[in-house]
Amino acid sequence: MAAIAVAALFIAMRLWRMTDFALDGDEIFSLQLARESWSGLFADAVKDAIHPPLLYVLLKFWIGIGGESLFWLRMFPVGATTLCLLPVFAICRDLEISPAARNLAIGIVAVHPYAMYYSQHLRMYSLLMLFALVSAWRFERYLGEESRRNLVWLGAVNALLGYTQYYGWCVPLLEFAYLLWKRRNTIPFLISTLPAAILFAPWAIAAGKVLHGRGLQQNLGWISKPTFGELNWFWVDLSGFSEFQKIGGDGTAWMFLLFLLCYRRYAEPRARWLMLLWIAPAPIAYAFSQWMPQSIWGHRHLLFAIWPFFLLFCDSVWRMHRALGYAVTAVAVVWGYYAIQFHEKDNRKLPWDVLTMQMLDNEQTKMAHIPVYTIDPYLDYSINFDLDGLKTGRIGPLGPRVSSRRDLARLSAKAARFEVVKTQSVDQIHAPYFWVGWTDSSWREKQTPVQLLEQRGCEGGQEVSQYDSYHHVWLAPVQCPN
Predict the structure, then answer these.
(1) β-bridge mates for residue 372, sequence order
(2) What is the pLDDT of residues 225-279, one digit of tens each?
(3) Among residues 34, 145, 320, 370, which is most buried (max CB within 10 A)?
(4) Helical packing angle, 85-94 and 99-111, nearest 10°
């Protein structure tokens, strides 16, 4: 009964507020590739080169089944995350992790801010977590029984890992390293992994040619080399305290200290493997980011570490003295209460649909053509997507806040008059009437773009704006003399 309850909580939390926010730029990219023809999908994926194409392939099938409503699109990552419960139950059964410890771990991950965000994010991170967990489970099985069946499982799921995200290769590499560490025979494992490497080779060659020609700067230039503090902050994120900064560092330190003092399964090879899976990936990514010309650091790529960490942490809790175990569980319940409150008010996604509607509602002129100049590398992408959806009638991905409007015909006609124009500075803007957009994350001048334009004799109108936890966006109409 308790297992059903925590599984229901896990699913319910992922359905909650699932359509409150429109797709962001990365999610829009996923959808647009999935909309392409098969040849166009692979051509554009190779052109992007920074992510393997499995997500886009599966998403194309998903859209073919259920369409493009925001609810259905978000059900893709939610479904992948929910499927993670299957290998979690299997790992707990194999390692004899008690039902109480397993349920506590599922309950924590159910409301974990880090896990919650990416469980509703239309990118490959939920798939990466799912396949990494399946691979970890079958490798744990292989450590106990070196059977051909387990090797076939490993070969198949590791091929899926490679085509999901480049970080996915970290899992089979760690599996190989673990076999070397334990002085086990690595030849059967290498043979099982060879088909995965061969299947991945065509993509690696095609994407490698693209990246060799242009480098990683175009896609990853915004990622700086991580400091040691950022590596430490990953553990804060993993432990669930990153959104509670007043106690974040101290809470994480106490969790790790409790784990180190109380865990008693270091001698078990299969438990050691799960420890390696949550400990090693972050330092490896940190080291590679320091060594490579372009950093590849990112917390989201390491999402799969959350399950082995909490499974082993909760296992240690329920192997302690019963009174101490109950005390830790009580603390986890209090933390979970505040985590749920955080999710209720979570604004880590900017409501692009609301911002676009504000612009359309505030537009009162009869101009037949209205440019929207965006002074930001990424601002044009989401606004243009929302406008295009209204122009073409493909409003499903825009969400219920748009589709529930009773004046969609008027909004569609208005949207048809707008054209988004990407620009780098105010000096490149020349039009009698337009809207201008900027963000505080990229605009570094003391005066706003509207104030600079007013110095040229233009007149700014009423601004509209939206914000999330990371940046603030403004749009404003501007009238200039002919």
Answers:
(1) 420, 435
(2) 999 888 888 888 988 888 776 776 777 777 777 777 667 766 677 888 998 999 9
(3) 34
(4) 150
The interaxial angle of helices 306-317 and 228-239, nearest 10 deg, is 60
The token duo for 409 is 């015909």
Question: Would you say 112 and 131 are in contact if contact means Cβ atoms under 8 Å apart?
Answer: no
Structure-block tokens of residue 173: 């590499």
Place of tokens 């104030």: 451
pTM check: above 0.85: yes
Distance of alpha carbon 299 from alpha carbon 181, whole angstroms: 27
> What's the Cα-to-Cα distance from 105 to each of 3, 36, 307, 400, 480, rounded to whole Å?
11, 40, 8, 33, 60
DSSP classification of residue 242? T
CA distance linking residue 356 with residue 362, whole number of Å: 10
Query: Which residues in the chain show pLDDT less than 70?
Result: 221, 245, 248, 261-262, 265-267
Separation of alpha carbons 295 and 166, rounded Å: 14
Q: Are strands 472-479 and 459-460 parallel, antiparallel or unpaired?
A: antiparallel
Distance from the Cα of residue 115 to its chain's centroid:
9
Query: What distance in Å separates the CA atoms of residue 58 and residue 124, rounded to the nearest whole number?
Result: 10
Q: How many residues does the chain have?
A: 482
DSSP letter (8 states) at residue 440: T
Annotate 358-397 with DSSP letters as a single string. HHHHH-----S-EEEEEESTTHHHHHHHHHHHHHHT--GG
The whole-angstrom distance between residue 271's C-alpha and the CA centroid of its chain comes to 28
Distance, CA of 98 to CA of 113 (rounded, Å): 25
Is residue 79 exposed (0-12), middle (13-18) or buried (19+ Cβ within 10 Å)?
middle
Please report, for residues 162, 184, 236, 410, the alpha-carbon distance to residue 169 in angstroms, rounded to integers and kept in the order given.
6, 20, 24, 50
Give the C-alpha separation, 309 to 297, whole Å: 20
pLDDT in tens, 84-125: 999 999 999 999 999 999 999 999 999 999 999 999 999 999
- The residue behind tokens 């970290």 is 170
In b/e form, how buried is each residue of 245-258, taking b as 16+ CB within 10 angstroms? eeebeebbeebeeb
- What's the one-letter identity of residue 7? A
Q: Which two tokens stand for residue 107?
A: 């309950």
CB atoms inside a 10 Å sphere around CB 62: 18
Q: What is the number of helices (H) and of strands (E) in the chain?
A: 24, 6
Give CA–CA dist 155/158, Å, rounded: 5
